Amino acid sequence: MKKHLVIVESPAKAKTIEKYLGNTYEVMSSFGHIRDLPKKNLSIDVKNNFEPTYQISAEKQKIVNGLKKSTKSAQDVWLASDEDREGEAIAWHLCEALGLDPKKTKRIVFHEITKPAISHAIENPRTIDINLVNAQQARRILDRLVGYELSPVLWKKVRPGLSAGRVQSVAVRLIVEREREINDFKAKDNYKVTANFVASNDEFVSELNAKFDTDENTRRFLKDCIGAKFTVSKIDKKPGTRSSGAPFTTSSLQQEAARRLGYSVKQTMTLAQRLYESGHITYMRTDSTLLSNQALAEAKSYITSKYGAKYHNQRQFKTKQSNAQEAHEAIRPTNFSNQNIAGDEGQNKLYKLIWNRTLASQMSNAELARTEVSIKISSRPELFISKGEIVIFDGFMKVYGRKGEDVILPELTLNQSLKPKQILGRQTFSKPSARYSEASLVRQLEELGIGRPSTYAPTISTIQTRGYVEKKDLEAKEREIKVLSLINEKIEESTEIDNYGADRAKLVPTPLANVTTDFLTKHFAPIVNYDFTAHAEKDLDLIAEGSEKWVDMISKFYSSFHKLVEKSETVSRKESTQTRELGVDPSTKKPVFARYGRYGPMLQRGEVTDEDKPTFASLPENTTLDNVTLEDALEMFKLPRDVGKTDEGELITSNIGRFGPYIKVGKTFVSIKTLDPLTITEKEANKLYKEKKKEIDNKYIKVFKGGIKVVNGPYGPYVTNGKRNVKVSDDKKAESITEKEAKELLLQAPIRKAPHRRKKAKARAKK
Fold it and tell me: Which helix (H) or strand (E) holds 51?
């Protein structure tokens, strides 16, 4: 009996769906896209309506052959890739590759992988939506044109091997501009005044409703408080409420998972994908905050039975994005009765977060009692203000938790006299805008209308892997702050150490990001223009709706973009690498430049056209291309420097390389960390070298003839001859291995191919 053939894009998804469809259905996976534009060529005919040329990749040919064989013997074919534009494009490419008619082949979509959803989809098939396919195709062609034509410009003008992208370049620009804003920020100080009052044996803190710009004005205020009377002038009690956030969209899930769980954007999406494919949550790429009627009913049933009717408050949240198009529903559990799932710890934590947020969105507001007390000063017009907040009814916080704890003020009465235990005026400093984290960058991209849910994670991953951005933990800096205190009617002055600037997992631009962003902003302004990039997304939405032709959109873009590419040929390399002449070296009479080189920011002495080749040096620590001086540069040209000799009489030199300052003895390089290569002493260098030598000696357990070694590796001891590696079994002592045993072990191990050989082998396989 012929079976119905269902094709999905994921093996995990196929496994889950197969459970619900029964024996009359065969479910196979395409393992994602089976066709795409070839990597090496543009493959877009710009003179013929931008006609793309797709090809089946070599690694997918076997999969396509298997699918073709199954389609011939199948009763009919159902294409069940994801319901967004990319899923629609996958379905269309399957038709093209398998010889299926897109107008007749059954296309089914579902927002969740559950039996009712699958059954409903099977009962209501449709055909491929060519408008969605065109929108995805337009995005792919647009990104290919930008990447293929702009990247070679960067190779020639900035550095070989660089890449540019329509969304990625804008994301990098955001991070670069924020970093510059922080670097240009000048902190302003003022004095915040607080008082500790005592009433009915309870102590509470109150803050002055004004700040002072100098310590002199703060001192004057404290002086006026000596002998003054402090009286409760106003008690304002009023009810308040706090409501839950909307169910998760893709971006809000990424942000909350980062805040609550510490997950990266990529980690969140990987875990969410597994949860979806296992049938635990609905589709995880969505702009919508809406919940289906079925979900609303299930949430109501669970809340009222578990917590009572007073905890339930049914509502639909308005979707922020007017052009939300990736899906019809928010991310939610497929079954509210499953508070926990079978899965690894990461999946469980993310699932619990989604479950909590969805349920909380259908629960009552939390009810609060808020109190604000004003305390007047007999000698001054300012007021001290104290605020208290108590949760009367927890509502949605029953499942989603709350920030902070109750702030309870003592019972106070109007005109009650209070006595301050102490009044403090502490110097504070204004703060610049915060650096972007992955989550806050997603929020900013979403607010600007740049990219879509499916693009955020790969974009943020790409700008890091390609060296434009580093995710860093920032160390705290120290500064002294003044503290003026009034205690027992006496004013005292002291200082405290304030640690500031520490932060975790922030996105920091590299020098490469600065140079590339400046080049693109000057010569390719439309590509990194926020409005242009957001407008392109709106055009793609219009194509998806059938209101605009994709060829018209691409043609309009390319006509202006290609002119910029041609014009950029005239840009000099000096300009593009931000070459800046610092002055002339008095000893050599040669000009000294700061510029961006192949491996990053660098110093150059002499011109390329000189008879003698120019010499190069690294930038000093904590300097940039913009602020390095001639004096700084001349010091760096003193490197490499002879530091002294080892105990064995070998020469020690110091220098700065790609990975920071180091000393060198023979062929051994030793990082000198925070020490300065210009001032490191022979004693300091010898100490570091001995430590490194000891580490190297401990690495090799045994060394035999012919380069055979028994090595202490990170995952245990192994035998190597440079070409083959073989792990030493747990039941064998590495120290007891003989040369003969080592040779026998190596004969069993495969030869490691060098990377360039593997590439050549792949190229031959393709041919």
Answer: strand 51-52
Percent share of the chain, pLDDT over 90? 63
C-alpha pair distances (Å), 497 with each of 186, 288, 335, 426: 20, 47, 53, 12
Residue-number span of the structural domain to which 685 is assigned: 641-700
Question: Is 73 part of a structural domain of the chain?
Answer: yes
> Which amino acid, 664?
K
Residue 531, domain member (yes or no): yes
Identity of the amino acid at 329: E
Q: Which of 619, 666, 675 is nearest to 646 (CA)?
A: 666
Place of tokens 């062929």: 667
pLDDT of residue 39: 84
Read off the pLDDT band of 757 (50, 70, 90): very low
Residues 99 and 197 in one domain: no
The predicted-structure confidence for 558-606, as pLDDT tens digits, reads as follows: 999 999 999 998 898 888 888 899 999 999 999 999 998 887 888 999 9
- Nearest CA to 452 out of 332, 291, 288 is that of 288
Type of residue found at 668 = T
For residue 1, give every residue at least 6 positions away whose Cβ sits within 8 Å of its Cβ, in sequence order, or none. 24
Q: What are the tens digits of pLDDT across the range 205-245?
A: 999 999 999 999 999 999 999 999 999 999 999 999 999 99
Output 551 or 660, whichever has higher pLDDT. 551
- Cα R_g (the chain), whole angstroms: 33
pLDDT in tens, 339-368: 999 878 999 999 999 999 999 999 999 999
| Nearest residue to 82 via CA among 74, 91, 73 | 91
Query: Does one domain contain both 668 and 740?
Result: no
Q: Do both 26 and 107 map to the same domain? A: yes
- The confidence score (pLDDT) of residue 619 equals 87
Let me know how long the chain is. 767
Pair of tokens at residue 119: 């059954």
Whether residues 342 and 255 share a domain: the answer is yes
Domain assignment present for residue 343? The answer is yes
Joined together, the tokens standing for residue 279 give 């049938």
What is the C-alpha end-to-end distance of the chain, expressed in Å?
40
Residues involved in catalysis: 283
Please tell me the predicted confidence (pLDDT) of residue 58: 87
Give the strand pairing for 4-8 and 76-79.
parallel
DSSP state of 302: H
CB 165 within 8 A of CB 462: yes
- 555/447 same-domain check: yes
- What tokens appear for 585 in the block? 């070296």
CB 643 within 8 A of CB 685: yes
Please state, as a whole number, how many other Cβ atoms lie within 10 Å of the Cβ of residue 112: 21
Considering only the C-alpha atoms of the chain, give the largest distance between any 2 of them, rounded to a whole number of Å. Answer: 99
Number of domains comprising the chain: 7
Does 714 share its domain with 632? no
Q: State the angle between helix axes of 166-184 and 530-545 in degrees (0 to 180), rounded to the nearest 10.
A: 150
Residues 587 and 545 in one domain: no
What CATH number is given to the structural domain containing 226?
2.70.20.10
Residue 84 has pLDDT above 90, yes or no: no
**pLDDT given at position 195:** 97
- Bridge-based pairing of strands 25-29 and 4-8 is parallel
pLDDT at position 695 is 82
Tokens, residue 664 = 């060198």
Residue 760 resides in a domain: yes
Token code pair at residue 556:
């309009």
At 113-164, the pLDDT tens digits run 889 999 999 999 999 999 999 999 999 999 999 989 999 999 888 888 888 8
Instruction: Report pLDDT digits (tens) over 170-195.
Output: 999 999 999 999 999 999 999 999 99
Question: What beta strand segments (E) does 213-275 contain?
Answer: 230-242
Its pTM stands at 0.82
Residue 503's beta-bridge partner residues?
Answer: 474
Q: Are residues 421 and 442 in the same domain?
A: no
Nearest Cα neighbor of 113 from 23, 26, 17 is 17
Residue 640: cis peptide before it, omega within 30 degrees of 0: yes
User: The domain spanning residue 73 has which CATH number?
Assistant: 3.40.50.140
